[in-house]
What does this fold into?
Amino acid sequence: MTAALGDSTGRRGWATRWNGPRLGQRAVVIALLLVVGYLIIPPIAALLLGSITDTPPDVWPNFTLSSLYYAYTNADHYWSLALSLIYASTTATCVLVVGGFLAWLVSRTDSYLRHLTDVFALAPIIVPAVLFVTAWLLLLGPKGGLINQWAMQTLALEEPPFNLLSLGGMIWVGILQELPLAFLWLWPAFRSMNSDLEDAGLMAGATSFTVIRRITLPLLRPAILSGWLMFFIYSLGALAVPLMIGLPAGYVLYSTEIYLAVHRVPSDLNLASAYSLLLVLMTFAGVAVYRHATREVSRFTTVTGKAFNPRLVRLGRWRWPINLFGLTVLFLCAGLPILVLVWNAFLPFPQLPSAQAFSLMTLENFRAAMNYGPAIRALYDSIVLGLGAGVVSTILGCIIAWCTLRFRGMPYLLGLLDQLSTVPIAMPGLIVGVSVLWLYLILPLPIYGTLWILLIAYITLHLPYAVRICASSLAQLHPELEEAGYVSGANWLTVFRRIILALMAPSLVTSVLYVGLRSFREYSASILLAGPGSEVFSVMVLDMWDGGNLNILCAYVTVVMVILGTLVVVASQLGRRLGTSLH
Amino acid sequence: MINISDLKKSFESGGKAATVLDGLSIDIARNSFFTLLGPSGCGKSTLLRCLAGLEHPDSGEISIGETIAFSSSRNIMVPPNRRRIGMVFQSYAIWPHMTVGDNVAFPLQVQKQDNIRARALQALSLVGLEGLEDRYASKLSGGQQQRVALARAIVAKPDVLLLDEPLSNLDAALRDQMRGELLNIQRSLNVTTVYVTHDQVEALSLSDRIAIMSKGRFVEIASPDDLYNRPRTSFAARFVGGANIVEGRVADTANGLTTVDSALGPVATTGLAGQPAGDNAQLFIRPEKVVPLAADAKADGVNIFNCMVRARRFAGEITELDLVPTTGRNETLLSCKARSSDIVSLGDSVRVRIDPRDVHVLAAEDA
It folds into this structure.
């Protein structure tokens, strides 16, 4: 169709003027496709190659199915797969139910929780998964767990009442750790749903329960379904809980198997690839199901574009029990883990608060942490990597969002770009780690064992979030704002630079921050890709954990939490200033 | 039918409480069409939502029929789903995940009524949407969505029908058509209706009674005829139909005409009989009652003003003129709707006459 247009106008002689920007746009889209394609397709191909060979990456491949055969005929493999499925589906279901309830409370009721949304947003950022697991081990560990100690002292028990080193313990920590993320996933869905739709149900005579069942839940179906898949796949690929709780408890999960295949001596990357293949297939199936569930987008467009204030349901006498419930959940997700980490940072060994404990308090741990191997350098590297990944992903994400939302006339290219850039959203960090590892052991590019390979992995993993943040911000800008630019005589590059970028500035800051922080806390890919001399923060934490230096670890992460907290506050102030300067 | 007494509501905004409903009291007669008219932000939608039970007033009482729906002193708050009210939202709020038929059948289903399918189809045919029951609402045009919303609101035979600016999202021609259908449906169902709008034409053509609201208070409550022809406040006079408001002092009364000294010069009116000289008076004159005279017309008597045309806007049948009197103080503008056949140009001098019977007196001071 574009070609036909070019012909008919070409004869009239002003074709260059119209085809000029078209060609430019096409070139931009193709360049983006090459970049995004490079980030995703070669690593997956390398992973495939690894699973059907028995040779290490740096030699000429010898094709064989022995790795696949070994991986998928092994009874232990299916046992760990079953365990992983139980762990992941229970966790995903629980976090969505509780997180959805919290999101409803915050956005639709007069509970006190609606003043605390920032805590949900901050908790997962300043308490990365590794720290969260550490904190809960300090609290509920079978030997020295503080809650266990306390319970044994006060109730005169002989045995510790809780044992975190169990399947139940894994699920407990998994749920609490992902809960704020589930809340953050569903909350925007509630906020963008016009509450008139629910009010209309009440006016029709339905009870609040019927309204939730027949109107709210069906309308939120895409968010709920996609959220479940996200958290399911996330839990399947997560490493912190399986490694730190599962392994000592004797539970080998699917992700643990992949990790062990890479890290045993000698490492068996072919077997790791063969294991990973199943997760890749699940990822693609997940993305397909998600696209199927949301294919008729118009049936689920509930955003009217008009600002509205949802009516708040009065909880009445339920208000305080519900507030108490919410505050307890928040305390378990954020307050308690942070408290226990900070408390132990000042003590020579883990112990309950007491007069004696206070007299033992010391800053010695902080000194030790600063002198602990490459701890300081790892922190610095993590911050630089986070910033780098944030900036690059945001630049890419912003251009991709603009192209897919605004360019016309090349549906296949744009559709492909859109699909490719959303694939990593369901890819576990573990898989990205294994496949990127393979690729750069094959390619003659000498970046294995340097920070560059981590940067590439972080950008791959977090590009979809940058695209999402930029796209949702861009969707709120009326196209007429840009059209006014064209009418004034600006070309599309100028329009992008002077209008789009200027209006999106606050969202771009958000995107850099979000991707940066996710990269900072990233763990599953880092642990496979970081080598001696390129350690990052989360790898350091595991190293300290392995060495049993718990109180030094606590001092280290206390410093990190302070730095992260400061960063978030500074950045949100910056974002706010950019936002207000526009009005 | 609907009785509201001393209803108050304020919202918290930026730490300060903004009063939205400032002690409202009113009675709305059974089966009547009652309209809340006012500029945006006057509290009319909030009042409607309080009637629906979607907002919780701070204090006061609302009763619908025999039942008390809200009473702060008796601590009663009937939830919206027990109030037997039908409501059309400004955004229509058609559920996008249900078909048209399911949308309309929903009230009957949740209220456990009989004969659901037949009655849903009947409601759809009443609003002229036969045969569309299996479509998804997102496939409908704005006007059709509006009809679905109306069908859903009336299908369960509610005691009260609430309409929140239902026509404001439609184009002009469709709006006129829907206005007529809305009135027919309301009359045939005989349902007490409360209608919120900022459009005076809708209010005048639909209502039995109109309440004009401003800043959370009722400025004036009257029939459309009284409101247009005999407004008591300058706010109502300006908001409904537009008006020239002239302020002055009573000079004298003779032959049934009272003369008021104003910025226009002396203005004679048939009102104000018996008012003592020196009293303040507020007069209003509808723009269409300011009649330009042909250049050669011989006219003498009262209320003839020499003016200059400062602005001229052609509007089809009529032309709107902004006139500056050359007598009196010349910064005073007089707006005039002249027949378009009376051709005048910008800067022309023109004489206008205002019949003393068209010079009305505003009785009440604005709140």
Remarks:
- Residues 1 and 409 of chain A are 8 Å apart (CA to CA).
